[in-house]
Amino acid sequence: MENCKYLGVTLNEDNNNQIDLQERINKANKIYFMLQQFFKNKNISKKLKLRLKNTTIDKTLTYASETGTLTNRDRKQLNIFLN
Hints:
Helix content is 60%, strand content 10%. 8% of the residues are buried. It is mainly alpha-helical. The termini are far apart.
């Protein structure tokens, strides 16, 4: 068995989390583009926009990240979204 999906996380024999990380980045990207109109709305406070970003996009990106080891490349990919 090469890849196995368990609790929404893709596991593999090599303990390489690159596939799972790319899936999480793609999901977060989809969420961002779905909420783009909301983020551009000037009638909504920055505080509320930040809360929404933290609870949806950031949580999607970091889900189960404590279960694997992050390389410098992985950290750079995550930092693009988190900052």
